[in-house]
Structures are given as structure tokens and as C-alpha cells.
Amino acid sequence: MAGVTRDVGVVIVAGGSGSRSGSTELKQFRWIAGKPALLHSVQTFMARPDVALVVVVLPKAYAADPPPWLFQCDVDRLLVSVGGRERHESVVNGLEDLPESVAIAVVHDAARPLVTDATIDRVIAEARKGHGAIAALPVVDTLKEVDADGRIVRTVDRTGLWRAQTPQAFPRVMLEQAHIAARRDAIGATDDAGLLERLGLPVVVVRGSERGMKITDETDFARADALSMLPE
To answer: Rounded mean pLDDT of 27-32?
Structure first.
């Protein structure tokens, strides 16, 4: 597309074992809505003219011999990297493989296969303003804090609470700064935005989508299949 700069690099984290899904097969390799879960995300990002490279971070055993269906993409814009012991290590491995021309880094979980292009647009647009951005949805359920015995301690005010999703997009230098600091301080986080937050770096939320659900257990596969049939 004329006038579009390919300065976005994408790290798709697919290094988990998927043990909670109740299957010996990696959940990111299992089929959802007609194709392997991981392939959904790779092809969605590959379809974007602003994406320079997609780095797929796989467990070591699979990185050496990726599934052949993964190469049903633009192989010139695809790279396979080796996952670390923890999620943040996998992200760092992927970041290190991005070319110098990449100014915007996007991190996405392979366990969220139905990410929409509109959501990707929103996080990248915010990252281009010079701060981090994550897809998220406002909490609508009543929240209860409970003790170790399951007894309710209190009702938590849900005002201002959001459920974080991916993709998350950042100015590359900002994300790298956050990961360098986290490594120095031996700090981990469940998402990359948390690493920026601890440094006081700005991160905003943009509206995500129910299609951005995370595949965690066996029942989620059927739900994802159903969601894939709905309009974006």
C-alpha cells in the first residue's frame, strides 16, 4: 500500500506448554475455526502493510523444527525464535530478533487467536503517539475478594477496572528500556505493560474485543469457535 511505512515489529509469544488446556498437544497448535490457533494470529499480522516482521517465539523443541503449516505466510517477514523459561524472557528473545528499522513493537499472545485488525489499529495508533497501549475491556461483573477458605472478605469497587488483553504496542525503545530494567532488578510481570508501569512510563488502554479471549482450558476452544462465527 502506497505511503505506508513498514516500521512495526510483532512478537507473538507461543512458548507455553498449554498444560491447563488438558491436552498433551500445545494449545497454540490446536485447530480453532478451521486452522491452528497460532496461524490465525500470524496471518492477521502478516496481512498488515505496516508490519515489517513477525517473530514467533516457540518452545525450544519446536523452534528447531516448526510445524510446516506455519510457513503458509510471507516467509520473508517471518522469523522463529526460541522461548525462555518465563514469558518475559521469551519477549526479550523476540525483541532482539527485530530489525533496527522497527520503531513500534507489538507483543501478542498466541493463546488469543481471534485478535481483530481494528484492535491492532488502535494499539499501534496510540504507540505512535509515544506511549504504550494495551487492548482491554472494562470489568462488568461484581468482584469479590475471598480468603483462603473461600469466604468473601469484601466487594471490590470495579470502577476504573479493566481486563487486560493483547496485543500491546509500545515505542520500541520504551519497551526495551522496561525489559532491561526488569532484568537488572530480577522482576517479572504477567504482561509487558506492567514493566513500563513500574518505571512510571505512560501506558493507556484502548477498547479490546470479546474475540480477544484467551484460550486457557478445554472449554475455551468451543467458545472461540463460536466467537469466530460472529462479525468483528
So the answer is: 92
Q: What is the pTM of this model?
A: 0.92
The verdict on residue 127 lying in a domain is yes
- 3-class SS at 10? strand
CA distances from 126 to 31, 104, 140, 171, 204 (A): 32, 10, 24, 10, 8
Q: What domain range is 202 assigned to?
A: 8-228
State the CATH number of the domain containing residue 207: 3.90.550.10
d(CA 193, CA 152): 30
Pairing assessment for the beta strands 31-32 and 35-36 based on DSSP bridges: antiparallel
Give residue 103's identity as a one-letter amino acid code.
A
**∠153-159-163 over CA atoms, to 5°?**
90
